[in-house]
Design a protein that fits this description.
Layout lengths: L1 H4 L9 H24 L5 H30 L12 H35 L13 H11 L3 H13 L1 H17 L2 H12 L10 H32 L5
Helix pairs in contact: 2-3, 2-9, 3-4, 3-9, 4-5, 4-7, 4-9, 6-9, 7-9
Amino acid sequence: MLRILLGEEPRLNHGLMEDAIETMVKTTQLLQKEMERNQDPTHDFRKLEIWSQGLIVSLDELEQSWFAAAHFRKSVNAGYVDDMSLQEQGEYSRYVYFYKNGFIRVFSILDKLGTVLNDLYDLNTSKVKPHFSYFTVLRQFKYLKIHEDLSRTLDDIKDTYKTPLSILRKRRNAEIHYMNSEMQDDLWQRHQGLKHKIELEDLDKHLDDLKQGLDMICKTLSAAYHYTNKVLAEKGMKV
């Protein structure tokens, strides 16, 4: 959608994005066929189908946010906030909007996936922590010592992206709990010298962190749903 609004061609999925979406689509197809056969009296399959479709949409929205942020970043050339023209300030504001939208969605998707895994594999994580996160779910897998292959894979992905995830989490927390993340950068600079111009944050570094967050999400969703499809197949489900 955003690509069309920005005058770009629609996205063609490939690589990590393609694998994540196709794997989740396969899950929804398996669930739909099973509901056709057995009517799903408990609505468990319908619930998982809806959640999985929601994750597909959320992944698409995350990728679009990263793409739009990168698009508007190209029009920001000034090194200091004070040196921006009015037009450049507008482009920078649009960059900030989609960048923030992106890093917030990274953790939103992880927590949605945590809800799916908790329900699907009967982890009862809410007994450990009522308002649990994806990372609590990962710890619950290890505590219960179940589905260890999936647990190890998800942990390995998390550890691979530890540094960019930590950066994105700090900015997400600042954005949600304290102040706008870009204003926090400005405040720190003001403390260094009230008469100095505010230097623009490293936009390319921020975009790279967000892209790594997107890659981590794709790999995590792929791993979780490849494993889930295997489990469903072992239960006799097929398209």
